[in-house]
Write a structure and sequence with these properties.
The strands form five sheets. Strands 2-1-3-15-6 form a five-stranded mixed β-sheet. Strands 8-11-7-12 form a four-stranded mixed β-sheet, with helices on both faces. It has three domains: 180 residues, D-Maltodextrin-Binding Protein, domain 2, CATH 3.40.190.10; 111 residues, 3-Layer(aba) Sandwich (D-Maltodextrin-Binding Protein, domain 2), CATH 3.40.190; 112 residues, no CATH class. The chain is globular and about 70 Å long. Helix 11 packs parallel to helix 13 and helix 20 packs antiparallel against helix 21. It is α+β, with helices and mostly antiparallel strands. Helix 3 links the parallel strand 1 and strand 2.
């Protein structure tokens, strides 16, 4: 009925006035302009889903949860549908999605979750229909994130984000002659963007506990995701990667692909954990319990000198009301001068340091195979991720929507549309785009039971961080648990999934 009256009024207007049709103005939704396509505002506005209900499960506010709620409300207004959004903390999200699947309950139509869970969820997800694959917005998605969305050759996850870990730092402090002279005097070393994790820790500790920003408050060296059940395992992987991912050794980073023996307690991984434990000396008060949201606002608000993880803290720092806007820059993750070689049982020396960029899992979305509203569900995801909405969401750090389309890597967008300094924009774009070109990348463990593996890893790392166990003992315990998990799930089943990850890491695709 909504569409009937709208069409009738428009017809009368055109016939009586003799005017040509004009494109509708959707600027009230915060976008600059609508972009034609299957998920555009105009296309979705033409749908009538009155009397129907769409159920969505997503992450807690703000990261991914806030844009989900925003676009759900817009979708309601445009289509007449009722949209229910359930927000769940990350530590509970996997089970809240999987339990209804396993008990054959049609609980949610649309799911937002971590793309690394595809190994467990693939049998419950509906393939993305061809008309959405042929859409211009989908064709702009970079190959990395198209591959992340696929199981085999079939796209079953709907790309809404592109994630990787990288270093973000206060460029005004690193470039300050006063700070450079002070650091040189006190340490005998030049102040520079850290090239290794040892150097990162040293710089972070030097800049911890005093007011180097001049705002009357104490500042600190580093903010890191260190809370056990809030993505801490990803932060640890970034620290361990350059010590454990040797470019001259093939066949697995988390496991030896041939034997499926866990590598998590080998010397490279242990070295990464030792440095993670040591970094706590440069955390802000309470920093050893920081989740992702805390890291975003700690760096983005100017409390700390450096941070690493996803884009969110960097984008938060570049908000228009940020006290450190255009005082930050991006760089690749620190590397390692010595890298463990499991083939020789020795440390290999690297100069320049070995880098192992972490193409860390991103947020993704999907439609349940059990959903009775697949048409509406895929339309919602196309709308959520249309070009206009994505360009809006990229500009809000806390949203957790990071560049994943080729059009997102143009520095002019960040300069002209967001007012970033040219140097800031160039360091950002070059860092992100450069990671895709690396021949020594680390990807996530996309296998059945990944939640169990990562939960075990987080628990073990937490013991070391709390001083309850040495890094070696903690990771020995993780390796033992991983072996048990592999045996429980089935070695061949885990290996069949893991070989796809190894193919990406060893550049076999």
């Amino acid at each position: 009925m909504k569409r009937y009256f709208a069409a009738l009024i428009l017809t009368i207007f055109l016939v009586a006035g003799g005017f040509s049709a004009q494109a509708a103005d959707y600027s009230k939704y915060g976008i600059e302009k609508d972009v034609p396509g299957i998920g555009s505002y105009e296309s979705i506005d033409a749908k009538d889903y009155s009397g129907r209900t769409l159920n969505i499960i997503t992450h807690a506010v703000p990261v991914m949860g806030e844009p989900t709620a925003l676009h759900a409300k817009q979708f309601e207004e445009l289509t007449g549908a009722k949209v229910n959004v359930v927000h769940v903390p990350f530590g509970d999200l996997f089970q809240r999605i999987m339990i209804p699947f396993q008990t054959k309950q049609d609980a949610y139509d649309v799911l937002f979750y971590g793309s690394l869970w595809i190994g467990d969820m693939n049998t419950y997800l509906a393939p993305v229909p061809q008309k959405y694959l042929d859409n211009g917005a989908m064709k702009e998605v970079t190959l990395n994130y198209q591959d992340v969305a696929k199981w085999g050759d079939t796209m079953i996850q709907f790309p809404v984000d592109g994630d990787r870990h990288y270093l973000k730092y206060r460029s005004d402090i690193f470039n300050s002659p006063k700070m450079q002279a002070r650091y040189k005097k006190d340490t005998g070393k030049d102040l520079r963007v850290p090239q290794t994790w040892e150097e990162y820790n040293a710089v972070a500790k030097y800049f911890s506990g005093w007011d180097w920003s001049g705002d009357g408050e104490k500042n600190y060296g580093t903010a890191e995701v260190a809370k056990r059940d809030d993505l801490m395992f990803s932060a640890f992987i970034s620290r361990a990667a350059p010590y454990a991912k040797n470019p001259n050794v093939k066949g697995g980073f988390f496991f030896d692909l041939k034997t499926m023996k866990p590598l998590i307690n080998t010397p490279g991984w242990v070295k990464g954990l030792e440095l993670f434990v040591d970094a706590q000396k440069a955390f802000p008060p309470g920093g050893n319990n920081f989740g992702l949201g805390d890291e975003i606002f700690s760096f983005g608000g100017g409390q700390v000198l450096m941070s690493y993880s996803w884009d969110d803290a960097f984008i938060q720092a570049m908000q228009k009301d940020s006290p450190i806007r255009n005082k930050v820059a991006a760089a690749p993750l620190p590397g390692a001068s010595e890298v463990w070689n499991r083939d020789t049982g020795k440390w290999d020396k690297f100069s320049p340091p070995n880098r192992a960029p972490y193409i860390c899992w991103g947020w993704t979305s999907a439609v349940s195979k059990m959903s009775k509203n697949k048409d509406m569900a895929f339309d919602f995801l196309a709308f959520f991720s249309n070009q206009a909405n994505t360009l809006h969401d990229l500009q809000i750090g806390r949203f957790g929507v990071n560049p994943y389309r080729s059009t997102h890597f143009d520095p002019n967008f960040w300069v002209e549309k967001l007012g970033w300094d040219k140097n800031t924009a160039e360091t950002y774009v070059e860092t992100l785009a450069g990671m895709d070109l690396s021949k020594n990348r680390v990807f996530d463990l996309r296998v059945p039971g990944v939640g169990q593996f990562m939960s075990s890893l987080a628990a073990g790392v937490s013991k070391a961080m709390a001083g309850q166990e040495t890094p070696q003992k903690a990771l020995d315990g993780v390796a033992k648990e991983w072996t048990q998990i592999v045996d429980r799930i089935g070695k061949d089943r885990v290996r069949d999934a893991y070989k796809n990850v190894v193919a990406l890491e060893d550049n076999l695709r």
